[in-house]
Amino acid sequence: MVNTTIKTTKSQEVFAAAQNLMPGGVSSPVRAFKSVGGQPIVFERVKGAYIWDVDGNKYIDYVGTWGPAICGHAHPEVIAALHEALEKGTSFGAPSVLENVLAEMVIDAVPSIEMVRFVNSGTEACMGVLRLMRAFTNRDKIIKFEGCYHGHADTFLVKAGSGVATLGLPDSPGVPKAATSTTLTAPFNDLEAVKALFEENRDEIAGVILEPVVGNAGFIAPDAGFLEGLRELTHEYGALLVFDEVMTGFRIAYGGAQEKFGVTPDLTTLGKVIGGGLPVGAYGGRRDIMSMVAPAGPVYQAGTLSGNPLAMTAGIKTLELLQKPGTYESLEQITKKLADGLQQIAKETGHAACGGQISAMFGLFFTSGPVHNYEDAKKSDTAKFGRFHRGMLEHGVYLAPSQFEAGFTSFAHTEEDIEQTLAVARDVMSSL
Ligand code: HOZ
Fold first, then answer.
1. Would residue 220 count as lying in a domain?
2. Which of 140, 271, 356, 403 could bridge across to 122 with cysteines, CB 3.0–4.6 Å?
3. How much is the pTM?
4. Ligand 1 centroid to residue 225 C-alpha, Å
């Protein structure tokens, strides 16, 4: 093996205590190791492409705090900007120049966005956009895709990905039937199924929401023509098209998946990268639709900490860093090396596997594939993924603890990090 097996005594002690204090010992279910076995490691600090646990072990990190850390953790320029902003206060609850700056950067970058509303998380962004799409169309039903995750608002907890898929939960107790009776679902990459739903529910569907590149059922790319087809269908049936780019925004390309694939939705949700590691979400889109949001219009949505100066500062600096020439080329190159390498090693060590990558987002399924949707993803050998995850962790590589999550790289990851990761993967896969 490339590295020695780690000791995680302190992590285990802290996590044991946490389980009496917080449900499952975590602040979000995806952080638990329920589907991969073992216990979460407890973090002490993060820097660049690395994390350190409370026992002093160092790991190469491919979770990147679930997406935001595209510049690497605690980038010195982000930290310096935050220090400066901190001196001016932690919360205003009032307009600031910083909001204008980040809003302009988002509007310039993301093709669909003419106006934007800042919130505090991806969940909030999707809740806001849901109300807006219903208000604008005066229709209640929506179409979402199996395995896509749009946060934990009631209406979206139907065949949801991420932690819901990882834990194999049925639709959540506590969600009133009325809240999900308007949620229609289709398999990802299946235009015929979407068309059938539109036919069966004529003039009732407000819009279609999707992750244009799925990250919450593992990494699943859109088939050629799928996004374009959704654009045509939504136009044909008078519905809105909404891209949930919480994961893909500023990651798949500076302008998100909509820039990469040349398909412009009506509305977009953002999060993760635009907060540079602080809590931020946003939704935006066509000016005529966004003008309905209060106080410009009647659609109510609010937030004490929305547009928070620290979060805006981290977001602005992160987007500035991403504008440096060559950033996305090098993210693509390094992530391709990793994703191709993992598939090749799986093949050479006799495992059925498939995967892929776009820019700084990647995945590996333990199934021969191809994986076009959540049903395909579920054919993965999740027990094998659990053993793979454990082996990688024990030798210094931190992957998302679920077969149904995408992996993330950053421009802090070096060729050497990738080579070390692949060397570990070869050893681990050889002994699976
Ligand atoms: N959306 C993320 C995972 N797919 C992470 C957010 C969470 O903690 O659920």
1. yes
2. 271
3. 0.97
4. 28
